[in-house]
Amino acid sequence: xxxxxxxxxxxxxxxxxxxxxxxxxxxxxxxxxxxxxxxxxxxxxxxxxxxxxxxxxxxxxxxxxxxxxxxxxxxxxxxxxxxxxxxxxxxxxxxxxxxxxxxxxxxxxxxxxxxxxxxxxxxxxxxxxxxxxxxxxxxxxxxxxxxxxxxxxxxxxxxxxxxxxxxxxxxxxxxxxxxxxxxxxxxxxxxxxxxxxxxxxxxxxxxxxxxxxxxxxxxxxxxxxxxxxxxxxxxxxxxxxxxxxxxxxxxxxxxxxxxxxxxxxxxxxxxxxxxxxxxxxxxxxxxxxxxxxxxxxxxxxxxxxxxxxxxxxxxxxxxxxxxxxxxxxxxxxxxxxxxxxxxxxxxxxxxxxxxxxxxxxxxxxxxx
Amino acid sequence: xxxxxxxxxxxxxxxxxxxxxxxxxxxxxxxxxxxxxxxxxxxxxxxxxxxxxxxxxxxxxxxxxxxxxxxxxxxxxxxxxxxxxxxxxxxxxxxxxxxxxxxxxxxxxxxxxxxxxxxxxxxxxxxxxxxxxxxxxxxxxxxxxxxxxxxxxxxxxxxxxxxxxxxxxxxxxxxxxxxxxxxxxxxxxxxxxxxxxxxxxxxxxxxxxxxxxxxxxxxxxxxxxxxxxxxxxxxxxxxxxxxxxxxxxxxxxxxxxxxxxxx
Lengths: 368, 263
Ligand SMILES: Nc1ncnc2c1ncn2[C@@H]1O[C@H](COP(=O)(O)OP(=O)(O)OP(=O)(O)O)[C@@H](O)[C@H]1O
Ligand SMILES: [Mg+2]
Known about the structure:
CATH class of the largest domain in chain B: Alpha Beta
Order of helices and strands of chain A: HHHHHHHEEEHHHHEHHHH
CATH architecture of the largest domain in chain B: 3-Layer(aba) Sandwich
Bound molecules: adenosine-5'-triphosphate, magnesium ion
Helix content of chain B: 25-40%
Shape of chain B: globular
Largest sheet of chain B: 6 strands, mixed
CATH superfamily of the largest domain in chain B: P-loop containing nucleotide triphosphate hydrolases
Number of domains of chain B: 2
Oligomer: heterodimer
CATH topology of the largest domain in chain B: Rossmann fold
Largest sheet of chain A: 2 strands, antiparallel
Radius of gyration of chain A: 22 Å
Structural class of chain A: mainly alpha
Strand content of chain A: under 5%
């Protein structure tokens, strides 16, 4: 068990709670920086591409996590913001804007447009907001078709390569460089996210999540703050969308569909709502499941000569996993990890109900 | 000088007149208590001051500002902080984070400098921490600083809510039943804190409370309400012995008469 002695206010403001934690994260950073080396040595970058895909999902997941996990606003329409970012990026690049400007700009414009779309529905709560964003997501494909001059419509659009000071980066031709570009964006966003959470802006988000009435009584403007969260969230999703485009190489009206929106929401719930880690854990699960299913399929086919070809197996499996999580581990994978860690830290004093949510103080139980 | 002035304020919920033409003044530096039976409209008056409701008529002025011209989230900026009858804390945050939200009205940095954690944001954060630390010391919350609200006992939550209001360094503190659900010792502590808040911090206090012991101990003036109407205003003992107040607490005049004749 570790006792953290706080000797100054800095202890609560710094990014890491204690030296050991900083060391762990430094090791993790080294690991992700060195990962391409392994694939370089074995000479097969296929899996690195999958890992890059997981990172892109995690970036979109962070966007949704900020909105849903930290501000308490559910969205079933984040694929729409990804689409915005992706097509903006394609068009800006097509207009000759350098990637280093086009990429962040497409994120920011997606953020602004996203906020404008969201403003009318921000007054809605819970399931109504979810339905409004769901409707938005259902319309996205139609809008992509309507906006054919910019999106290529049903035929689709090719995504130009990334170009940083003359260095061309293509997902297939330069998988290592592409990985580092995505990794850099992911790490930068994690840093921004952490900063947000330790300063007044982030605290006003979580305040709204936990009690709108008290947030207002503390001077937090609900509409402005929710719009701010939406802006940041849609910006991150837009950036993820732009990267997703680079990773896919070609996008059509079916790329950013409802299933993607739903997958994003599933991802952060499975990963753990309200934790940045949750976006990454969830993205890993979402990235692993298709690979696992494919491997399982070929394993069954080769060893037992059984051919399973059920359409929609992946979605069904996702749904099943989600239901299990909501039933057995509402805090998500990250919550499970916290419990395991606490178990070992406190061994043998861990109590089973340590992380149990207090039920006796629910508003309905309180005496007036 | 009066800090808060409520003039002829009326609020209806459908057919129910929750606050009926009430006028009151809270003077600078005083502890003003609102008492009355359940459903008298006490919390509703707080919610009117917080601008959660729009009154049907009347005016609410605070420190020279017309509160009716402002929205709920602008009220704290004038120096009004409050607690809730049913504790409204941010449950999935720690005590420290809750108190820091109380500092919201003093923030000077915006979203951008927060995101990049600019030196200015860092210095501001240090200042907020120092201010919150004073509140933690004052209310003896050190042991709970990093605990999540979800796991705290009821009594501690009440104190944290008081702390969150204090962290905003208000001029007027609205306390809705600060002692309800507290043990005798905890109520005792609450009384000392309210005294200190008044005398040492110079903060005016308006509180709703059913515990007449606490009301008599700390308040300078008391107003009794029933069915949204003012019954009497004065010192605690004056109000307690006022016939209309006795009547309201005992029910109709009939019952109180039969009550006394039997005794
Ligand atoms: N949002 C609301 N909608 C409808 N009626 C309400 C609402 N809030 C309060 N009331 C009614 O207004 C009246 C006054 O309520 P209020 O909460 O102000 O009473 P109170 O004096 O605080 O009582 P208590 O001591 O029980 O807290 C009650 O009859 C209550 O039922
Ligand atoms: Mg009340």
